[in-house]
Amino acid sequence: MREVAIAGVGLVKFGRYDGQKGRPYREIYELGAEAITKALKYADMEWKEIQVAYGASMFGGLGVPNQCTSRIGMPGIPITTLEGACSSSQQAFRQAYYDVANGLYDVALAFGTEKIPPGLIADTLAPVWMLMMGFNLPGMYAIETRRYMEESGATEEDFAWVAVMERKNAIMNPNAFWYQAPELTIEEVLNSREVATPIRFLMACANADGASAAIVCSKEKLKSKSRMVTVVASSHATASYGYDNLGIKIREKGNPTCTELACKQVWEASGYGPEDMDVIQLYEAMAPSFLWDAEQCGFCKPGEAAKLVREGYFEINGKKPANTDGGLLGRGHPTGATGLAQVIELFLQLREEAGPRQVPGAKIGFCHCSGGGPNGVCHILKR
Amino acid sequence: MTTNSGKRQIPCRDGLWTNPTSPGEKPQLIGSQCLHCGEIFFPVNPVCINCQSQSMKEIRLSRRGKIWSYSTIMLPPPQWYKGPVPFDLGYVELPEGVRIWTRLLGAEPGTFKVGQEVELDIDVMQVDKEGNEILGFGFVPVRE
Question: What was the ipTM of the complex prediction?
Answer without folding.
Answer: 0.95
